[in-house]
Amino acid sequence: MSLSLNEQARKILTDNDKGGYTVPTARLYPFQWNWDSVFTGLGFATYDVNRGWEEIETLFSAQWDDGFVPHIVFHKDDPSYYPGASLWSAGNGTLKTSGITQPPVAATVIRRLMETYKSDDSDARAKALMSKVAAWHRWFREVRDPSGEGLVMTVHPWETGRDNNAEWTAPMGNVEVNPSVKLERRDVSMVDASERPHDREYLIYMSLVAEGRALNWDHKAIAEKSSYRVADVGMTMMLLRSERDLLAMAEYFGDEALAAEVSARIKIAEKGVNALWDDELQAYCSKDLLTGKSSGMVTSASMLAPYAGVGSKEQTAALMQHFDRIANKIKYTMPSLDPDHSEYDHKRYWLGPVWLVVNYMVGTGLLEIGEKERGERVHKDTGDLVRDHGFYEAFSCATGQGTGGNHFTWTAAIWLAWAGKELV
Ligand code: GLC
């Protein structure tokens, strides 16, 4: 008897459940990843709200004293992943972790669990997590917002979650390869190499890991010295959205001090985000903070402005023009890179493929600002990818073919929480 898509999705979550946390997919990613887990919490909540909370609580058990939340938590050793815990040599004293962070989507999902999936203890759990998330957001502002404008500076392409996007090519060109780096990639023996980043990129990724390690993961020192410092448009938008959701929670729990602190930051970020507006291109783009140059390209992260609640009427209209131009070129929205860009590749990781978590945020934002037709297109395309091609890590925007790993946790989670549901 064949399983329904909902049953398959739940089975994926169960199979990838390691007890309190899930892995994105077996072997290729055998640990807990930050934003994967947060979205996975949302997927679990559709049928087991307790397990949903637990996923996020486990992630925050890896938080460091300074508020930082790592991108990987190495709960158990596993030799199948490179770079593993020993190459990072980082942690919070209790758990081994990586030394870089990932997109801050937690506040948004915690609020959603609290409001949509109410249970006896949901308020208490949300409140306990709220202060942890607040500390993380403070860390972003204190350590990763050098100009005080409300932007998010990244010191490694992996922090953005959009690992090999073309936005990072120019800034990575200014990083010197550390001669001690020896690549021991395992990923290319598990999935098709044409769907993964190139070795030349991995040499830089690992050189940046070596830089952080040499500074003992002192985040303030890294933010001042890193040879790679890029304001990521995606994280800037996601953090602003998360700040709004954190504010709603602070108000709900009557925490006036926190509400005032977060409101002040929101005001700054709402204005500051304009520093990422590329006038020539008429889109929000990431920016190299060392050269001051805009990436000059439209990516799926540019389309997160509605989700963040920013953009004047003119800016939104310009973004919608890009949306239509891009949507007319491919079969499935929202490709991770503009198909008109020279580095575009419909099946190589973040150079074209569609990622369901980004679609979820892009589609949600569009629907929230009343862009019904475009929002519905994103929602439908997202569902069709799963209906026609299964639960892959990502999908070719041109053909829909699944790329990267299969039996993928966050794809299943987004199916359960959004793509497989009717819009209301
Ligand atoms: C890749 C993705 C990243 C994700 C991780 C685990 O590195 O680029 O966004 O968090 O895999 O799924």
Features of the shown structure:
424 residues; four-stranded antiparallel β-sheet; 17 helices; 11 strands; 47% helix; binds alpha-D-glucopyranose
Descriptive report:
With 424 residues, this protein is mainly alpha-helical. Helices cover 47% and strands 5% of the residues. The chain is built from 17 helices and 11 strands. It has helices at 5-15, 34-45, 49-60, 85-88, 106-116, 122-143, 169-172, 187-190, 199-214, 219-225, 233-252, 256-272, 305-308, 313-327, 356-368, 372-389, 409-419, and strands at residues 32-33, 72-74, 90-91, 96-97, 153-154, 230-231, 277-278, 283-284, 287-288, 394-395, 402-403. Strands 1-2-4-3 form a 4-stranded antiparallel sheet. Strands 5-6-9 form a 3-stranded antiparallel sheet. A hairpin with a 4-residue loop joins strand 3 and strand 4. Helix 15 packs antiparallel against helix 16. The longest helix is centred in the first third of the chain and has 22 residues, at 122-143. It binds alpha-D-glucopyranose. Residues 24, 29, 33, 35-36, 161, 163 line the site of alpha-D-glucopyranose.
